[in-house]
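Checklist before submission:
- one chain only
- standard amino acids only
- sequence pasted in full

Submission:
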Amino acid sequence: MRVLVTGAAGFIGSHVAETMTAAGHEVRGLDSLAPAVHGGRPSHLAGDLVVGDVRDPAAVDRALAGVDAVCHQAAMVGLGVDLSDLPGYMDVNVTGTAVLLEAMGRHGIPRLVLASSMVVYGEGAYDCARHGRVRPAPRHPADLARGLFEPRCPRCARPLATAAVTEDAPLDPRNGYAASKVAQEHLAATWARTCGGAAIGLRYHNVYGPRMPRDTPYSGVAAIFRSCLENGVPPRVFEDGGQRRDFVHVGDVARANLLALDAAGRALSGGAAADDGAGALRCYNVASGEPHTVGEMAAALAAAFGCGIEPAVTGEFRLGDVRHIVASPAAAERDLGFRAQVSFADGMAGFARAPLREPAAPPPRQPLSRSGSA
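Returned file contents:
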């Protein structure tokens, strides 16, 4: 099968492209190779590459010629540094996805795997001893400033117990990036209904591994901590370090894309990949099922790095961050056959010395220049 991977030069996209190629697919990449992100074509990127922006209809048309399926990974990523990032998120992630889907409809390409994110949920799932499953409101800045980090029951203000979020949880985006990912899902669902295509959205949890970008405000927390260790300074852990996340290795994420592509094919042929089949978007958590706190991740990474530096828990916070979000990967296992293979301990041990992607230039202030890769 001929598969287009958008954002193929980026962190996740490059691993997806490699996994697809290893499985016998003919892979073409689309990436802007933005100078602020890449100092030219990366050495790890093999095969056919169309250099162009996903927002450019002409480049997208060239990339889609003769293609059977698309894995859409290109995005501007991260929480967002400030409000000036909002136009960039909407332009790159939303407009770029709209341009891609319109062209897929014209080219008659019926399979889509969309890189979505856990951020669409906002806070994770919580249970109150008195009121059962509840949705806490965004945490108040005054509480955060006082070191009161745990969400409380919106009805009785009691402490809450965390639970694994499932794909049927209501969407509750709490920052600009999250809003753009929800919009991508809605656009993919519209494309599937209109064209009768098979679309699968993969809601990635905290992805880490080789080729993460280092030293930018948009790097993942694992890469930021790694950079601190390499520079001989303690990783700065926000809040009290008790934020729970699911850290999933990029190799597992790439394999989930391959399995999703196969499931989309079964849906088109009327198989039993899922109840909805073609003409709908089906979303799945891509997670390890082995949650850990951010503090535990920082400690494990520091221990594996072996430099004798201990993480520093700072009490600092960022508005828009969520406290806990851990996921149930049961639906992905049931429908896609996906189960993470890299354990937390093994993954952190490998990541401690894995190569990161060097910044091609100082972090830019104009988010449009980061349109190529995630």
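Reviewer check: Residues 86-107 form the longest helix (22 residues).
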